[in-house]
Design brief:
The chain is globular and about 65 Å long. It has 14 helices and 13 strands. The chain has two domains: about 160 residues, 3-Layer(aba) Sandwich (Rossmann fold), CATH 3.40.50.300; about 210 residues, P-loop containing nucleotide triphosphate hydrolases (Rossmann fold). The N and C termini lie far apart (about 50 Å). Helix 2 packs parallel to helix 3 and helix 3 crosses helix 4. It is of the alpha/beta class. It has a seven-stranded parallel sheet, with helices on both faces.
Length: about 400
Amino acid sequence: MYTPNRNRRGRSRGKFNSGRPQRSQRYNSNNGRNSKTRKMSTFDPSQFINTNPVDAVEEIYTPKNRFDTFGLNERLMHTIASRGLKSPTPIQDQIIPEIMAGHDVIGIAETGTGKTAAFLIPLIEGTLKNHGKQTLILTPTRELALQIGEELRGLSEGTKIFSALCVGGMNIRPQIRALRNRSQFIIGTPGRVLDLLRRNQFKPNNVATVVLDEADRMLDMGFIRDMRSILSTIPTNRKTLLFSATMSKDAQQLVNDFLIDPVTISVKKKDVANSIEQDVVHYKQNNKFDVLFALLSAPESKRVLIFGSMKHSVERLARQISTNGLSAESIHGNKSHGQRQQALRKFKRGESRVLVATDVAARGIHIEDVTHVINYDLPNTFEDYVHRIGRTGRATKHGKALTFVLAKY
């Protein structure tokens, strides 16, 4: 539990005190060469070798509530049932009552725990009671914003609830039109939302709730000033819901400054080591791609997600794989929203066996049945490593994570 400073809530350091996201320095291990302008990662993956993972016996969670005991609208209850949601996940069971009671909430949870429905269900319920209030949901990436928008449309089917998707990399005019139509949910990335505020196209007077989803990722990406600038314009009597996989110093400071008496709910997924076989792959200066292609050519490599450190190297690697006869797509910051969505669709449908991505582009993306995650370039931190390899071995399935390390001999 974090004790807020009530006198500091909504304090503004200038109405739009913004700045460009600070980019962390990365190591380009492509072909084993060190870029002159980038620092080599000190992350050591060898300590996480686990070539024979054993599933741990997980404690079975018994929910205290059922969806039909939350006191939800009949229309919403019907939609929940039609979507096959039978029993609340741990975070849904614990956090839905707190949001419905009007509390500020801190949810310590990762993707795959059901957290999106955990905040959407009570917010939809509140909107059905008062169509005049708005909810602002901030996310680190446009892909995550799009996924939240899709889930919102599914859960609010048959109601007169509308949303505006406000993200960069897409035409701003349809987003302005959606805002003028007084959509009840505004889902966006900090940069674009701040841009719309500056243009006076997004008027936050009616925002009753703010959701900061994957707050740690937004902070990692350098959006701290944008987030503070946006929050400082929202009425101080709002409710604030913050979701994060970890609670960093910056995230805790946001809590102190912008949340009042928050209730903290912590839900952790199973340890990734329980279902993911982890190992390192040694390569020499001149054979890195050859080693990779041999791995990709193996029959068991059915759906492979490869992580690279930089946009241009990711694009080049995907083209090199395709040139050698294996279908590969790439997602990175230089691609438009449409291009990234097309690449994801091909990968999800099995039209491409390989997807090469940067960390930032892949955040918030959920892809089922990934058999292998390959760290072609080293992650910068342990958190990045866990986030990457967690894309395989999801739910009850097993997966394999391989990290390329330059041979010392």
